[in-house]
Amino acid sequence: MTTAPPLLRVESLRITFPGRNGTPAVRAVDGVDLGIRPGEIVALVGESGCGKTTLARSLLGLVKPTAGRVTFDGAPLDYSSRALKAYRKRAQLVLQDPSGSLNPRHTVYDAVAEGLRIHGHHGDERAAVAEALSRAGLRPPERFFLRYPHELSGGQRQRVVIAGALVLEPELLVADEPVASLDASVRGEILALLLRLRTELGLSALVVTHDLGLAWNIADRVAVMYLGRIVETGAVEQVLTAPRHPYTQALLSVLPEASGDPVVLGGEPPDPSRIPSGCRFHVRCHVLAGGEAERAGVHRACRGQDLEILGGSGEAQVACHWARAREDTAPAAS
User: Fold this and answer.
1) pLDDT in tens, 75-107
2) Ramachandran region of residue 120, left (φ > 0), alpha (ψ -120 to 50) or beta?
3) Is there a contact between 186 and 154 (Cβ–Cβ < 8 Å)?
4) Crossing angle for the helix pair 125-135 and 184-201, to the nearest 10 degrees
5) Tell me: the pLDDT tens digits for 175-223?
6) What DSSP element (H or E) covers 17?
7) Which residues form the ABC transporter domain (predicted)?
8) Half-sphere exposure for 220 (CA within 13 Å, toward CB)
9) Residues 29, 228: contact at Cβ < 8 Å?
10) What confidence score (pLDDT) does residue 334 get?
11) What sign results for the dihedral spanned by CA atoms 201, 202, 208, 214?
């Protein structure tokens, strides 16, 4: 996994939406590099409104980039209808709300078989549906064929959605908050299912979440996103046990198992149509507000010097003047 070339690669991706009534354009994704290798699970973490879902949708061709490109299996994504149809057999989306993803008038069988019918499957449809349901943990699968969504629990509905993605035998799952609408008792089961699918099928996955605890439990690597850009990335253990960016530190500080006082961020994230100069986090940064950035001699850079886009190679990286200054002045290990 560490040496294989990325199955999915995002390069300098930007997605801008036109403003309304003369307002500036919204820079929803403002320069992202990201790679996902075969069999790797990457967690994309950040607050609501930071651009996570827009980025995830762009990976499936649902939103066309303003600039940059998405590459899958070495080939740039083709946005023609025919090419996207073929691509979506290899890359599937799992949404947050299973109730909204399932037609209440369709049985479980029809919901799972829908993808096969769209893509003109020529094999044994019943066997394929049964296998997908079984892989998703609904056994015996025949017991669920004629049930309707309202007859299932929330966890069972999410398993049906996952089965509907698995039936096409994809190589990549993009899961947008896959357990956010589920009871705590069911979340662990769905996360365990995703991990088992990675082991059994070699699936790659991008899991979009605001929950760093979820990232810790499922991901190999984490990318922390703020205001349209990834600000810290690396192996999940490295980022979540020794966060370098003040934003990552703040997100981790409010977890129940965190030690010390929680970091309270001031205000809401800035308007993505008016991204601040310098570090985009500086207007809410407790390190800058507390004088630590000034003591490190980077307070002016924080307010006025933009940081480059982090690479998508997978190595540990941080977009923070203060964090880099600390590392530059840290004594070398003997």
Assistant:
1) 999 999 999 999 999 999 998 878 788 999 999
2) left
3) yes
4) 120
5) 999 998 888 889 999 999 999 999 999 999 999 999 898 999 999 999 9
6) strand 8-17
7) 8-252
8) 20
9) yes
10) 41
11) positive
pLDDT digits (tens, 9 = 90+) for 259-283: 788 998 877 888 999 999 999 999 9
Residue-number span of the structural domain to which 256 is assigned: 241-329
Q: What CA–CA distances, in Å, run from 221 to 34, 46, 137, 237, 256?
A: 11, 14, 26, 8, 22
Task: Dump the DSSP string for 97-150.
Answer: -HHHHS-TTS-HHHHHHHHHHHTT--S-HHHHHHHHHHHTT-SSGGGGTT--GG
Predicted TM-score (pTM) above 0.90: yes
Residue 332 has pLDDT above 80, yes or no: no
- Residue 257, in any domain of the structure: yes
Instruction: Give one DSSP letter per residue of 227-272, joined into a string.
Output: TTEEEEEEEHHHHHHS--SHHHHHHHHTSTT--SPPP---SPPPPT
Residue 293 belongs to a domain: yes
Measured between alpha carbons, how far apart are the two ends of the chain, in Å? 31
Mean pLDDT over each residue of the chain, to the nearest integer: 93
Contacts 24+ apart (CB under 8 A), 149-156: 149/98, 149/99, 149/102, 149/103, 149/104, 149/106, 149/108, 149/111, 150/104, 152/108, 153/186, 154/98, 154/99, 154/181, 154/182, 154/183, 154/186, 155/182, 155/183, 155/186, 155/189, 155/190
Domain total of the chain: 1
In a domain, 278, yes or no: yes
Q: Is the pLDDT of residue 301 over 90?
A: yes
